[in-house]
User: What shape does this take?
Amino acid sequence: MKLATWNINSLTVRLPQVLEWLAAQAAAGAPVDVLALQELKLTDDKFPLEAFHQAGYAAAVFGQKTYNGVALLTRAPRVPQDVVRNIPGFADEMARVITATVDAPGGALRVVGAYFPNGQEPGSDKFAYKMRWLDALRDWLREELQRHPRLVLMGDFNITFDDRDVWDPVALAGTIHCTDEERAQLGALTALGLTDAFRLFEQPPKTFSWWDYRQLGFQKNRGLRIDHVLVSEPLRAQVAACTIDRAPRKNKQPSDHAPALLTLGAG
DNA sequence: ATGGCCATCGCGGATGGA
Assistant: This one.
């Protein structure tokens, strides 16, 4: 069972790349069973349901015009069940979270696909919103984990866990995605019993999931690891692999993010 | 080095992203 998350920075622009990538994964013998997408930048009525259908995927969509927008794709015959949009109890204009239950070996999974706020700059209004959003996410996840012990939280977190996730930790110390406040919020999420699946394994140094479009960021590997897959305690023993696929970042008109993947074994 | 980011909205240039 393979799950993945990918901020595709406009599905209108990137749909062909998503379909190609899904096809390539399947051709390599390990099709993606669940894909969380972020930054659709389109409304639900513009979502290419039919294209994904033909590729063998069902979808749950939570779109928005111009900004944000998230979706969960599930490979047939799986379908997203009991779909929840955004964080219950937290009023938000922005479409950032979509949650569904999907069948899996060893029992159904609750999958939370999320596009965390950027935060722009410490001290800004947007940073304060990011903190409130994170507070609300944590409070809701605490309850959600009670209801659904087998839970995966994946998406664009817009936060680095530590300096290993930063191409120049000295230059970027205290800047957005690298502040103590943001990292403390990640710590509060892991304290709920969620584990960064990527660090369950030995990883090559300087493995990132995002590179700035400017200044040859990707070519120079000046990046950040801000796209994460977290698993709840009962799933830890089932985690067989967690990787980031840099290949789509080499496409002609790439997203600035690369997909992160999780493979679950039988357990 | 002459320029050196991308998507959206909408038709210029601001806004947001990270």
User: Anything to note?
Assistant: Residues 9-10, 12-13, 39, 41, 65-67, 118-120, 126, 158, 175-177, 210, 212-217, 224, 226, 253, 256 of chain A lie near DNA strand B (CB under 10 Å from a C1'). Chain A has five helices and 14 strands.
